[in-house]
Structure formats: structure tokens, C-alpha cells
Design brief:
By secondary structure, the chain is of the alpha/beta class. 52% of the residues lie in helices and 8% in strands. It contains 20 helices and 5 strands. The chain has a 5-stranded mixed beta sheet with strand order 3-2-1-4-5, sandwiched between helices. α3 links the parallel β4 and β5. It starts with a helix and ends with a helix.
Length: 381
């Protein structure tokens, strides 16, 4: 594994002198660490072989590798998962081929890397370490072998998928989709992320919801400080339990399941302070029962609130299902479901459906394919 500048320079020279696309993968420590940084970068290119790069000791010194990788097409599987952590270390593709997305567009029934490699190449990939703690050092040898295999056949898989897309007349569709993934901006901060706490539906009243919110933020601060996955600092179930039970003292909190453990007992005062902050909030600062939204209401309420919108959604979904069947592309890859719901709830003013689709993020191929079918449903008059 490459972990020093001299070795990195040698890897950069090899990959600069290689030919064709570059297979790229990255391993994070999701579920173990708070950050989503890359703890291992795997590379493969014809004429350069395979390289495993440890970006942690090389942080800030990866410029030679970034220069060597700049220009050729990168091949990744589920690229949107890895591009953010690669961008964090200044590794950015000039062009992209996403094998998972290609499999979806080609209509393959299973688009995981293992199933596609098995079905299209007749090979089996080693399993077992995908959810491992890649922040661990030193990394075990069998983990490194597993990581290397992830890029070993990516280029061959890319070529087979490119052939399928060409046969189906979807090469341009794929090019536009890959470019959208490559140039996608970082996601903005999620509104009220604490509402994603598992089991939060059990907390119904504003004051207990405030308790869950304060515990969530207290946990998030501690997790970020220690770079530990939040669920390992305090499970979601413990947040919900404490919010519902509302213990009256640190001692009472420490009697609850999870909180009675040794590590949590040491933090009893910290967690109880979060509960106390919630208890002292004025009514005006308590959270609402449901999350704020700038979109349409839940679809289950459409029939009562706007029957015409419900009818538009039913007709639009039927049209997309027919296109999906005809072209072998999943409905969610034809058009983002949220965009479809927004357009059905509030059709574009002036009847400019093409403009509304493009403004909502639809690619040109989606606009050309879907606008003629959706116009009779969404454009009136």
C-alpha cells in the first residue's frame, strides 16, 4: 500500500504512462467514523497495473497523483458515493463512466458490482469486507486483496456495458447521466436532520420532540469531536427512549437501557444537560409535529386536497411506466420522483413543460423523451 511521497511519485509516473480509462474506487469507514473521508483509494489502468493508496498520511501531498489522473476517463461503480470523498483530497475526474448507472440504463435486473461482474463477465468477486472499518491501521492483507479486486475488472465491465448501451441506442443518454453525476454540486445541509432519527415517529408531542432534537445535537457534536459514527456514540433507540421517558435526574437517566452502560454513565450529566435544555425552552421554540417542507403534501392526501392533481399524478405515472417498460429503464432513472410530484401538484405556468423539466434537473434526453408524453397530462388550455 502506497503511504509515502516517494512511493506516490512512482505510482503517479506509472499511471501517467498508462493507457485508456482508469478504474477508481475508494473505501470509507461509514458506521465507524463521523467523517466520510477516504481511507483507501484503489486504482487500475492498462500499462500501470493496480495501486492502493493510503490518503491519510499523504493528505495535502497528493498533487502528483491528481495530475497523473487528470484527463483520462474514470470508471467507478456508484460514483456518487465515492466522488465527494475523492474531491475532498483533490482527486477530480475530467470525465466519468459509472458502471452501476450504466447497468440501470441498460435495464439489467441487478446492478450491484458483484452480480454484474458475475452475469456479464462470468467472474466472482470476493465478499466480506465492504462494511469494514477502513480507518484501521495496519489494514489486514485480506482486506487489501478484497480492495484491489474491486478495480481489477472495472474496465472490462465498463467495455461490456458500453457495448450494451450502444446496442440499445442509449450511449448519449448515459453520457448525459454520467456528466450530471460528475458535475453535481455537494448536497446542501439537510433541514432538521434530527428528524431522521430511527424511531422518531414514536415521539409525538412538541416537548419530547425538543428533547430528541437536543440529544441528537449533543450526540452530533460529540461524534464530530471524536470522529466516531454517531450511532456508536449513542444509538437512535436511546435518544427516543430518553425523550419519551423524560427522566428527572442524571441518576434516573442512567437507569435507562443503554444509559446504564459504563461509558454512558460517565456521560450521564452531558446527556441530561441536553434534556434540561429542551425542558427549559419556551413554547415558541419547540419543534412542530412534522418537518417543514417546500414541496407538495404527501401523495396520500392529494385526493382530498386536490383531486385534479391526484388524477394528473396517476396519469403521469402510467405514462412513465409505459416508457420504462418500452426502454427497459427504471422509472426513477427516467425522471426524479420528486420532480414528477412537484409538476403534477403545480403544473408549469404558461405551459412550458420542457423548461420546467430542465429547471428541475432533467437531462436533455429525458426532456426529449418525456415532454411529448407528459404535455397532454400536465399542460392544459
Amino acid at each position: 500500500m502506497t503511504a509515502c511521497p516517494d512511493a506516490l511519485a512512482e505510482v503517479a509516473d506509472r499511471f501517467a504512462g498508462g493507457t485508456g480509462p482508469i478504474a477508481v474506487d475508494a473505501e470509507r469507514a461509514s458506521g465507524f467514523r463521523y467523517s466520510q473521508r477516504a481511507y483507501l483509494v484503489q486504482l487500475r489502468r492498462a500499462g500501470a497495473g493496480t495501486a492502493l493508496v493510503d490518503p491519510i498520511p499523504l493528505r495535502g501531498a497528493l498533487a502528483p497523483l491528481a495530475a497523473a489522473l487528470d484527463g483520462p476517463e474514470w470508471v467507478l461503480h456508484a460514483a456518487s458515493q465515492d466522488l465527494p470523498c475523492l474531491a475532498e483530497i483533490d482527486l477530480l475526474p475530467a470525465s466519468l463512466f459509472d458502471t452501476e448507472l450504466a447497468g440501470r440504463l441498460a435495464g439489467l435486473p441487478r446492478v450491484g458490482l458483484g452480480p454484474m461482474v458475475e452475469n456479464l463477465l462470468g467472474l466472482s468477486l470476493e465478499k466480506g469486507h465492504g462494511a469494514a472499518d477502513w480507518s484501521r491501521r495496519p489494514l489486514p492483507e485480506d482486506w487489501l486483496v478484497y480492495a484491489a479486486l474491486d478495480v481489477e475488472v472495472l474496465i472490462e465491465l465498463r467495455d461490456v456495458l458500453a457495448g450494451l448501451l450502444e446496442e440499445q441506442g442509449k450511449t448519449e443518454w448515459a453520457r448525459q447521466e454520467f456528466e450530471a453525476v460528475r458535475t453535481a454540486p455537494p448536497p446542501g445541509p439537510r433541514a432538521e436532520p434530527w428528524r431522521r432519527t430511527s424511531g422518531i415517529h414514536k415521539v409525538r408531542r412538541p416537548r419530547p420532540l425538543a428533547a430528541a432534537r437536543e440529544l441528537w445535537h449533543a450526540r452530533d457534536s460529540l461524534a464530530a469531536e471524536r470522529d466516531i459514527a454517531p450511532g456508536r456514540v449513542l444509538p437512535d433507540a436511546a435518544i427516543v427512549d430518553a425523550a419519551v421517558r423524560n427522566p428527572e435526574s442524571p441518576q434516573a437517566l442512567a437507569e435507562l437501557p443503554v444509559f446504564r452502560g459504563r461509558s454512558q454513565r460517565r456521560l450521564a450529566r452531558y446527556w441530561f444537560d441536553a434534556l434540561r435544555r429542551a425542558a427549559e425552552l419556551p413554547e415558541s421554540e419547540l419543534p412542530r409535529g412534522s418537518a417543514p417542507s417546500d414541496g407538495p403534501p404527501p401523495v396520500s392526501r392529494w385526493a382530498d386536497r386536490d383531486p385534479d392533481a391526484a388524477a394528473r399524478l396517476t396519469a403521469a405515472r402510467a405514462a412513465l411506466a409505459a416508457v420504462s417498460e418500452e426502454h427497459g429503464v427504471p422509472v426513477e432513472n427516467l425522471l426524479q420522483p420528486d420532480l414528477l410530484r412537484r409538476l403534477c401538484w403545480a403544473p408549469p405556468a404558461g405551459g412550458d413543460l420542457r423548461g420546467a423539466l430542465a429547471a428541475g434537473g432533467a437531462r436533455a434526453w429525458q426532456v426529449d423523451l418525456l415532454a411529448p408524453l407528459l404535455e397532454p397530462v400536465l399542460v392544459t388550455g
